[in-house]
Design a protein that fits this description.
Alpha-Beta Plaits; about 190 residues; three-stranded antiparallel beta sheet; globular
């Protein structure tokens, strides 16, 4: 899924935590019917990999998510008016390879938009930190993954509003296991054009 904004301030240390909070709350609202599995926030758009129980859940989940992000960010920036340039758009993924390619596209999308080549590492403006399919990093190693940027995060007073890997965990075979048939993802891997 892709949501395009009318403003180009989404990928900032000021706005990103607000978008992440909206994603978290939308996922926790009814995770049996609709959940965000992976996300990436770019300067003026958001890429998402979502799971939904049916078309109705997908439509209402995406509409609710779009409204939630727009309200939160508009409030944060003291702005009014239309936030998104268009309705969200996306497509269904049906094979393990399609899912793997989509995961790479979402988690490594900053590489596609970078003006200069980025070093190996994970995008801190994405759900990469909770992803367990990296080829060159495992949670058991105890070594934190490398990030190619180092944002300073605002502290959130409410520990219940802090995202965790369980919040963005997939429940479908394709997104949990199936894509792995085509190999784990390297931290320097770029999306195919």
């Amino acid at each position: 899924m892709t949501l395009r904004a009318r403003i180009a301030q989404l990928r900032t240390q000021f706005v990103f935590p607000t978008i992440q909070l909206a994603l978290l709350r939308a996922t926790r609202r009814d995770s049996e019917r609709f959940r965000v599995v992976h996300f990436s926030v770019q300067h003026n758009h958001v890429h998402l990999l979502v799971e939904a129980s049916d078309r109705r859940a997908l439509s209402s989940g995406m509409s609710g998510l779009a409204i939630r992000i727009a309200r939160y960010v508009n409030d944060l920036l003291s702005r009014r008016g239309r936030f998104w340039t268009e309705r969200w758009h996306g497509r269904a993924l049906n094979t393990p390879l399609e899912v793997r390619n989509a995961i790479v596209y979402v988690l490594s999308n900053a590489r596609k938009h970078a003006r200069v080549p980025l070093p190996a590492g994970m995008d801190p403006y994405s759900s990469a930190r909770w992803f367990d399919g990296w080829r060159d990093f495992t949670a058991e190693s105890g070594v934190p993954p490398p990030f190619f940027e180092a944002p300073k995060w605002r502290d959130n007073d409410d520990p219940n509003e802090q995202p965790a890997s369980a919040d963005f965990a997939s429940r479908t075979w394709l997104c949990r296991i199936g894509w792995r048939r085509h190999g784990l993802i390297a931290s320097a891997e770029s999306p195919k054009q």
